[in-house]
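Issue 218. Parser rejects a valid record. Input:
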Amino acid sequence: MRPEELVRDHTVYSCVMGSRAFGLATDASDTDRRGVFLAPTPLYWRFEKPPTHVEGPLDEQFSWELERFCELALRANPNILECLHSPLVEHLDDTGRELLALRGAFLSRQAHQTFARYALGQRKKLEADVRQHGAPRWKHAMHLLRLLLTCRDLLRSGELTIDVGDARDALLAVKHGEVPWPEVESRMTRLASETDEAALRSPLPLEPDRARVEDFLIRTRRSSAARQ
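Output the parser choked on:
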């Protein structure tokens, strides 16, 4: 079975991500599509296993096989966790509905480390841009601030919301280069500190509910095998 057929015929969940999901879209924004497909269980009985991810077939489209997606979500991968909480769902079947019903099982205080580690890496790249070119890539600076806001609020509330809401105008001002870099740095530092404080009192569990997710995956694989 070709990779594009897995996406076309076996997608259980797909959504729009990027600026459109974050509430930061402009007329020039791309439409980034992300999805999860369930490779039929009999494909795993062969020497050549199904792919863990597929790029395409549409432009700006990327999909993960269900097991790989769950594995990354249990590790609190920021991109994966946000994908589970997109407000712009394009396709959902019964397996996809069960996956979304498990969203809380993936959330834990581990998000503090994974989001912070990703944010630190992105900030170093921005600082390198400033040293080399005199200014950062403002769009990347905006998205770093958005990520820090999202992580802070997740740790405070125990719920992940990716639409920036009232922060839209302030973030777009950064994207347009209307906020001086020192002020942007100050905001990043403050948000990182607030995130650290939120982690100490977060209502989130220390670890995700791996057993619950694994049970879902096993049942789904068995059901797929039975249908074949």
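Fixed in the parser; the record now loads. The CA atoms of residues 57 and 64 lie 13 Å apart.
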